[in-house]
Amino acid sequence: MILPIYTYGNAVLRKVAEPINADYPELNTLIDNMFQTMYHAEGVGLAAPQVGLPIRLLVIDLAPFKEDDPELGAFKITMINPEILERSEEEVSGDEGCLSIPGIHETVSRAQSIKITYLDPDFKEHTDVFEGYKARVVQHEYDHLEGHLFTDHVTPIRRQLLKSKLTNIVKGKASCGYKVKTA
User: Fold this and answer.
1) Long-range contacts made by residues 117-124, C-beta under 8 angstroms, separation at least 24?
2) What is the pLDDT of residues 54-80, one digit of tens each?
3) Binding residue per annotation — 98?
4) What angle do CA 106, 157, 182 make, to 5 degrees?
5) Whole domain around residue 116: which residue ranges?
6) What is the pTM assigned to this prediction?
7) pLDDT tens digits, residue range 21-38?
């Protein structure tokens, strides 16, 4: 089932998400619905707060990049209760957008590599190191679990320049090709 994506201005996007356990109701259905929602919106990552749930769950599928980089194309992951353990000092700037902030893209600096621990859908624990674009996307989605948005990482002057566009999103005046829930 395709779920509505909560857009900028919704309070759930600013909450620190809560951990879940294996008893979370219909978790596998939720994960499937999140992937379907993400694919329908032509995204590569989606965190549970973006579908209105303040829980520590995110999904990522970098298949759209398989022609440019087969390693990225094979990266499909579900993370439950992730926690970033380490971030490299080296940062890399790159363009980011967000399904919850339609029509806006900005340059954001992120750690080049991260070490993260998380549970998979079978609640098996993993600790992995991700670099480059994988690290960027994981950090972007992880931010949603911490109540942060990519626009929080832009310079104050850029944020000021985005103010009218963000206000339009809050007012439901943003155009996108997927179902949204405005503030």
Assistant:
1) 117/82, 117/83, 117/85, 118/79, 118/80, 118/81, 118/82, 118/83, 119/79, 119/80, 119/81, 120/78, 120/79, 120/80, 121/27, 121/28, 121/31, 121/78, 121/80, 123/21, 123/22, 123/80
2) 999 999 999 999 999 999 999 999 999
3) yes
4) 55
5) 5-181
6) 0.96
7) 999 999 999 999 999 999
Q: How far is CA 15 from CA 4, 55, 86, 110, in A?
A: 18, 9, 22, 21
Tokens of 29: 């259905």
- Phi, psi torsion values for 81, nearest 5 degrees: 55, 45
Look up the CATH number of the domain holding residue 121.
3.90.45.10
Report the domain count for the chain.
Answer: 1
Query: Which residues have a catalytic role annotated?
Result: 141
The verdict on whether residue 153 carries a ligand-binding annotation is: no
User: H or E element: which one contains 175?
Assistant: none
Q: Is 176 annotated as a binding residue?
A: no
Name the DSSP letter for residue 56.
S
- The torsion of the CA quartet 118, 144, 104, 106, rounded to 10 degrees, works out to -60
By the 8 A CB rule, do 98 and 150 touch?
A: yes
Q: Which amino acid is at 68?
A: D
